[in-house]
TrEMBL record:
Family membership noted in the UniProt record: Belongs to the somatotropin/prolactin family.
Keyword terms, alphabetized: Hormone, Secreted
Organism: Serilophus lunatus (silver-breasted broadbill)
Upper lineage: Eukaryota, Metazoa, Chordata, Craniata, Vertebrata
Gene Ontology cellular component list: extracellular space
Name of the protein in its database record: PRL protein
TM spans (from-to): none
Subcellular location: Secreted
InterPro entries membership: 4_helix_cytokine-like_core, Somatotropin/Prolactin, Somatotropin_CS
A Gene Ontology biological process term: response to nutrient levels
Length: 143
């Protein structure tokens, strides 16, 4: 996976120990790391004539959802900063330079099944991290 070099906590217990700012930064980095590979994947599968239109549509929908989720996390981050929940040290860290990853061709060289496996793995991480972050920010949700 092209994000394998990214340091992420191994397991929920470790993720719960990460400070809010670092967890927020990690979420943004993971989402940003998938922007270009998902775009390339969409471009790649558009040329597979044997794929049904529904598959192409779903791939584009996934890319759009990742982009919307990243935008949403950025807005929540701004709100948390304005409320003093986290510092302003995350500004500009969601850019591709801020991810610390060189996308290169690694994501492009993966088979479709490996690509989907890696995306699912990282999607699960983002989902878990968002749940942990939500529980920290809004403990009244009895997490």
């Amino acid at each position: 996976c092209h994000t394998s070099g990214m340091l992420t906590p191994n397991g929920k217990e470790y993720a719960q120990k990460i400070p809010r700012e670092e967890l927020t930064h990690l979420i943004l980095r993971l989402l940003q790391a998938w922007k270009e590979p998902l775009s390339n994947f969409n471009h790649h599968i558009e040329h597979h004539q044997e794929l049904p239109d529904d598959s192409l549509s779903k791939a584009k929908q996934i890319s759009n959802m990742v982009h919307e989720l990243k935008t949403g996390v950025e807005k929540v981050t701004e709100k948390m900063q304005s409320m003093g929940i986290i510092s302003n040290s995350l500004n500009g860290m969601a850019s591709s330079e801020g991810t610390g990853l060189s996308i290169s061709n690694e994501a492009n060289m993966m088979s479709d099944s490996d690509f989907i496996h890696c995306f699912r793995r990282d999607s699960n991480k983002v989902q878990s991290y968002l749940k942990i972050l939500k529980c920290r920010i809004m403990p009244e949700n009895s997490c």
